[in-house]
Amino acid sequence: AKIAALGIRVRRGCTFHGLSFNVAMDLEPFHRINPCGYQGLQVTSVLDLGGPSGMEAVKAVLLDQLARQFGLTLHPASAMPDLSLPA
């Protein structure tokens, strides 16, 4: 069953990316389409699979698992240096 979608686009040498993750939402509209073009593909959510329903709880688990899978150490954005370009 589909629980998330990942998108990557490259346009004029720039990359764009996004992630959608079904946490606790009304999945009824997905019954009227072919998700990702696959007829009969079932769509589910974190809540339907017995996971947490709050975004902060899901965010914490998702970040922890991504860091573990990719061998990363994550730091809060507020702890990052300001890398913006001078005006």
From TrEMBL:
Residues 1-74 form the BPL/LPL catalytic domain. The keyword Transferase applies. Keywords: Transferase. GO terms for molecular function: lipoyl(octanoyl) transferase activity. One of its GO terms (biological process) is protein lipoylation. Pfam families: LplA-B_cat. InterPro entries: aa-tRNA-synth_II/BPL/LPL, BPL_LPL_catalytic. This is Lipoyl(Octanoyl) transferase.
